[in-house]
Amino acid sequence: MRLVIRDDALAEVRAAALRYADQSPALALQFIDAVKDALQRVRASPMAWRIIDEDVRRCLTRGFPYGVFYTVERDFISILAIAHCSREPGYWRARRTP
User: Fold this and answer.
1) Would 61 disulfide with which of 3, 11, 66, 79, CB 3.0-4.6 Å?
2) For residues 81 and 71, is the Cβ–Cβ distance under 8 A?
3) Is 51 helix (H, G, I), strand (E, B) or coil?
4) pLDDT tens figures, 25-73
5) Residue boundaries of the structural domains of the chain
6) Residue 97 above 70 pLDDT?
7) How far is Cα 41 from Cα 91, in angstroms, rounded to an integer?
8) What is the DSSP string of 58-98?
9) What does the alpha-carbon distance between residue 15 and residue 40 come to, in Å, rounded to a whole number?
10) What number of other Cβ atoms are within 10 A of residue 57's Cβ?
11) pLDDT reading at 98 higher than 50
12) Within its chain, how far is the Cα of 25 from the centroid?
C-alpha cells in the first residue's frame, strides 16, 4: 500500500532529527533509520498495530520514544504524525482524514 505522509509529520521528523543532530550526527541518522523502519513495518502490515483512537493506529519506533500515527484508507495509508510519545496526547486528531 502507498504511504501518504502529511507535511506536518515530515516537519516533526525534521525537527526531531535536528535536535538529535545537536547531540550527535550519528544519533540523528539512527533516528531517521528508526523512522524509516517503522514506516516500512506499517506499509508491510498496516493492520498489525494497535488502534489507539477510533481508526488511528500507532507503530512505535525502535530505540527512540516516537510513534507513527496513521489511518488505513481504501487505497493508501495516511501518516498523520510522527510524534514523541510524551508529547501532548491527541494533538494530531485535527489532522485526520474526513
Assistant:
1) 66
2) no
3) strand
4) 999 999 999 999 999 999 999 999 999 988 999 999 999 999 999 999 9
5) 2-95
6) no
7) 23
8) EEEPSSSSEEEEEEE-SSEEEEEEEEETTSPTTGGGGG---
9) 21
10) 21
11) no
12) 21
For residue 78, give the C-alpha cell. Answer: 495516511
Fold of 2-95: YaeB-like fold (3.30.2310)
Is the pLDDT at 92 greater than 80? The verdict is no
| Single-letter residue type at 12 | E
Angle in degrees, CA 16, 17, 20, rounded to 5: 90
Residue 1 CA: distances (Å) to CA of 15, 35, 60, 71, 93 = 27, 17, 19, 12, 22
| Mean of all residue pLDDT scores within the chain | 92
Q: Facing residues of 70 across strands?
A: 57, 79
